[in-house]
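Appendix B, record 7
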Amino acid sequence: MATIRITKEFKFESAHALLGYDGPCKNIHGHSYKMAVTLIGKPINDETSPKNGMVMDFGDLKQIVNESIVKPFDHALVLNAKTKNVNSAEVKFMSGKLILADYQPSCENLLIDFAERIQNKLPSNVKLFSIRLDETSNSFAEWFASDNES
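C-alpha cells (predicted):
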C-alpha cells in the first residue's frame, strides 16, 4: 500500500505584537493568515469502512484544525504573556479575544504551538507531515515533522 500525503488549507485573521522586538512588529498589527496542513499515511483498505481509500477524511481534518486553531485564533489578539499591563481592563475591552501565549507570538512560534495542537488530536494511523503558515503574501514559515524528530 502506498504512503500518501494529503493537504488542507485554512484561512484566519489574527493580530499580534512582538514583545521587545526592535522593529515595527513591536506594535499591534494584523495578518490574513493562510495555513496548509499536510498529513501522511496509508489509505484505509477496508471495504466495510465509509472512509475506505482515504488517508483521513478532509472533513475530519477540517474539524480538528478549526476547533484547535482557527476558532480560537481567528480575530484574536495574540500577545506574549509577559507584556506589561496586558491584564488591564482597557486591553481586555479592546480585544474581546485575547490570547496570552507563553511564547513570543512570532510566525515560527505559532507554528510550533499549532503543530502540537494538531498532533494531539490526530488518529494513530496518520501523522502530521508539515504545516506552512503564510503571514503575508510573500512571507511564510514551515514546520516539518522530519526536522523535529528526536
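Remarks on this record: Residues 125 and 136 are 33 Å apart (CA to CA). The mean pLDDT is 93.
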